[in-house]
Fold:
Amino acid sequence: MPELPEVETIVRGLDPAVRGRRVASVEVLDPICLRQPRAEFTRLLAGQTILAAHRRAKLALFDLSGQATLAVHLKMTGGLTVDLDSDEVRRFARLRLNFADAGSLVFTDVRRFGYCLALPAGSLESWPFFASLGPEPLDLSPDAFAALFTGRAARIKSLLLDQTVIAGIGNIYADESLFRARIHPQTRASDLSAARLKRLLGHLQQVLRQAIAENGSSIRDYRDSGGNPGAFQNRFQVYGRAGQPCPACGTCLRSATVAGRTSTFCPKCQK
DNA sequence: ACGAGATCCTGTCAGC
DNA sequence: TGCTGACAGGATCTCG
Structure:
C-alpha cells in the first residue's frame, strides 16, 4: 500500500530526524523481515551513523557512514517511525535500531511482507531488484514516458504496475491516474496515441505530486514517520469506490481484475 | 512477451 | 457470539 507518495512522505519526515544519529544496537524482533543472515545485517549496521534518508521507487534508503546502505521495502503494511513508542508501534515492531542518544528507528509491519536489507559499500547498484527498477515517474519527459510503451502489447495498467517499466506506482495511483486521463485500464499500451500517453503522464505526475503534498493516502495501515495518517484518500475518485457513481458522469463505477489487481474504473468515461 | 494463478501474511469485515 | 471465508496487494515464481 505504501506507494511512491507514501514512501516519499515517510522519508521526508525521517531524514531530518535520523541524520547524524549513531546506531548503538540492532534489535531484530522478527527475523523474517531480514533478507540476509542476522549476523551480517547487524555487522553492517551496528556503530554506523545515518547520513541521510531518501527514496528510490518504493524503497526507503538510508546512507550510512562506512558507505553501507540500509534498504527497506514496506510492501503493503510496512511502516517506519522514529522516536515513537506507541502501542501500535510496539505491537508490530519487527526491527528496532536503537540510537546512541536513546531514541530509535523502528520498522513495523502487520502482514510481514516487507523487508530490510543492509548492503555493503558499492553493492546497492548490483542488487538485482534495485538494478532492474524503471525510471522515476516525476522525472520523466513525455517523450521518455511514451518510449516506455512503444511496441508493448500488454495492458496499460499492467505496465504501470511493473516496477521494471516505471517505478513507484501501485494500484491506487494507477487507477486514479488512468481515470483522470480517461483511459480504460485494459487498453493495450500500443493502442494509445502519443497524445493520450502525454495526457496520462500529466495526470500521473499531478496525482503523485498532490498525494505527496497531502502526506500520502491512508486506507487503514499507512502512517507517516510520526504516526500520522495522510489525507489523499479523501481525493480518491475511483479507487475503492466500485458501485458508487462516477464523479464525472454519474455512471456506476465498475471493478474488474487486471494484472491480478482489483481495478476500479468508469465504463463510460474510460475508453 | 505476455498473462494467469499461486505464494507469502494477517487483520478486518461480511455473512451465516 | 463465534466461526468461516473473502479480501487487501508488491514482488516473485511457475506454467501455458
Notes: Residues 32, 76-77, 109-113, 152-155, 158, 220-221, 257, 259-260 of chain A lie near DNA strand B (CB under 10 Å from a C1').
